Amino acid sequence: MALKTTAQLKSEANSNINTNGVNAITGALHNAMLNNIIDSMVNKSTDALSIVTNVYRVATKTIGSTPTQITFSSALPSVNYEIIIFDTNGIGWENITNKLATGFKITGLTAGDIIYLAILTN
Description:
Blueprint: H1 6-20, H2 27-44, E1 54-62, E2 69-72, E3 81-86, E4 95-100, E5 103-107, E6 114-121
Antiparallel strand pairs: 1-6, 2-5, 3-6, 4-5
Helix pairs in contact: 1-2
């Protein structure tokens, strides 16, 4: 698969999100989050451009108390994937553990965080 530019990836991801639906993410927040996701993927790995070809699902979760971790239990596609998390502070990557077919856990959260989740597949 040929490597794609960041602009191409952003365009494709926007298209896929618009097609597949977005849960509680709209407008400027959606666009800023998407751009951060792709920029982070590009900065994270030399072969990231060959990885991020589809945004499978975007979801949000609000942290109401002070847990040490939270579990997303949504089923994941049976393909290779990367999971990117942004919290309300916009820090970027969170620690991911227990990536399973039935879900995964995120650690390092604080009370009141809103978690933005994107599952990027190839």
